Amino acid sequence: MVFDPRKAADPTATSLLTIDLAALRANYATLRDQAKGSECAAVIKANAYGTGAEQAVRALSKEGCGTYFVATFAEAETIRAAAREATIYVLDGFFAGSGPAFAEKAVRPVLSSLAEIQDWAAFCRERDQPLPAALQFDTGMNRLGMPHGEVEQLAAEPELLASFAPALLMSHLACADEPGHPLNEAQLKAFEACRAMLPACRASFANSAGIFLGARYHFDLVRPGFALYGGKAAEGREALRRVIRLEARIVQVHDARAGTSVGYGADQSLSRPTRIATLAIGYADGIFRALGAREGQSGFTAYIGGHAAPALGRISMDLITLDVTDIPEGLAHRGAWAEIIGEHVSVDDLAARAGTIGYEMLTSLSSRAQRIYTGSEAR
Ligand SMILES: *Cc1c(COP(=O)(O)O)cnc(C)c1O
User: Whose alpha carbon is nearest atom 6 of ligand 1?
Assistant: First the structure.
């Protein structure tokens, strides 16, 4: 029997985010196979891209994942509570004074400047304990990491490198989702050059899209995020299995006369008698205002019982109005659920409609939605 999350919904729930942990595990296995021979870590920053870090970590650990990357220390604490033995890296690094917190939770900072390395080395010397950390190079993105010159300086200070335990050399690709982009090869070369200056150490370069650039980009450890959660890693590449489904409840259905208008700003007037369903979800739930409709411009489309229900008028903070004139009344009624992301519309498609990327859509999704996890019993 197919599990129906709606049956598991709290009667008071107005929106539902269903997360398929079996699909998450399957995606992890696919990416691991794609990078055979390398360790496959998981990037679970921003609450596992909105899906729920704790549940994601438990599921991925069952699949054999042992290394996690988060953005902040607070995120690392959540992961540590769910995975006692895991290796955890904090991408945003370390500030002087935060050493004891990192040491206590056995969390590793990703160090991205000589100054940061000096702070970490000083902390380790103080404790007389060479604690592990990753070193990040900037190989062409100009965002975070040591540029070539700084790596040279570091290489000239072996005592600095001896005060802690460099565990991973890493860098991040700016254009991995465009396989033909010349910056990919340029960054790869720059990465090799930086590595060559330092003592041998495990290396990591590829995010989701980087994994699909081929084995030369894999090194010892790959760091997928978005593709794990069902996002399309690169243009022209099929997404892996869908992980999330977002639904909202109809709170009212009513008939409106032709010539009247819908919503704030009276931006859309009705050219025919229209049945309108009002959904209990809005831009405060990550359904961006850019997805609304107005005169002469259609918005996004929700699905009710498999039937298309186009948005009418502007998106409000907590409400969305849909045109359900052509949908059987038995389907579009108060209390019924409308699918916003799911079988009919992917995260990437909806994001594209809103003029953004799936990453932003995923990480903006409602904290108000009731989260239901399925597939946790798998395998
Ligand atoms: C977010 C992030 C990743 C994961 O990227 P995806 O494109 O989501 O796979 C990997 N490495 C670093 C440094 C990141 O910031």
Answer: 225
- At 335, list the tokens: 């209390």
> Atom 13, ligand 1: which residue's CA is nearest?
172
Kindly state the average pLDDT of the residues 43-70. Answer: 98
pLDDT confidence of residue 1 = 55
Ligand 1 atom having least distance to the Cα of 176: 7
Its pTM surpasses 0.85: yes
Rounded to 5 degrees, φ, ψ at 194 are -65, -45
45 catalytically annotated: yes
Pocket perturbation via mutation, ligand 1, pick of 70, 207, 243 by most ligand atoms within 8 A of CB? 207
d(CA 324, CA 347): 23
User: What is the whole-number distance in angstroms between the Cα of residue 254 and the centre of ligand 1?
Assistant: 45
* Annotated catalytic residue within 28, 36, 45, 62: 45
**pLDDT confidence of residue 7:** 86
Of 7, 62, 229, 264, which residue is the catalytic one? 264
Hey, what amino acid is at 334? R
Residues with CB under 6 A from ligand 1: 43, 91, 172, 207-209, 223-227
| Cα gap 232→359, rounded to integer Å | 10
With a cut of 80, say whether residue 2 has pLDDT above it.
no
**What tokens does 315 get?**
């998106």
